[in-house]
Amino acid sequence: MLRTFYIIAVGFLLICISAMANPVLTLSPTDGTVSGLPGSTVGWGFTLTSDNPNDYLLVVDSDFCESGQPVTGPCSQALGTYNDFIASNGTVVSPDSEVNQSFDATGTGVGEYAINSTATPGQIDEGYLEVVYNLYSGDPFTDPDATPVSGDLFLTAAAQVVVSGATTVPEPRLPIFLGFGIATLAAFDAGSKLKARIK
Predict the structure, then answer these.
(1) Please, which residues have CB within 8 angstroms of residue 153's CB and are 6 or more apart in sequence?
(2) For the segment 68-83, what is each residue's pLDDT rounded down to a tens digit?
(3) Within the chain, what is the greatest distance between any pair of CA atoms?
């Protein structure tokens, strides 16, 4: 009976620890939707929160994956090219803290999406942003004794890229035809008056 109690208690403790240690990725904009003209570059800011009381979180990669592509990659983009910023910048989140960063095409945020110049306004590339991270016992950049305590772990957040811009609407031709018709009638009327004068 006592053994069963200890097993349940340890299991409950492990569940609490694992629930407490899950980091959260929040995108900016919060709905994950960015838009831009064909040939332009768009991207996402982020807040990365860790409530792990012991370990440092080091971001090692990020990608934009389309719906249905596996979290473990490789991922591809239909309307452009994704470039990582968050891992390239060596983002580290200390225990029980968060890191915020706005998107800027000079190199801040989660990453950028360069929309193809051949993309058509109204097209959408829908999927999610994937952030790959490792946990360390200390800050891997400043603590020489820091050791990895996990392999690759993954965070995802729903995201989409919308190609903006107006579609070309043909000019109405009715005014042209009306103008031509009025000019023809005026010319015919002028010709009739001229013939009447000559007679």
Answers:
(1) 132, 133, 134, 135
(2) 898 887 899 999 999 9
(3) 128
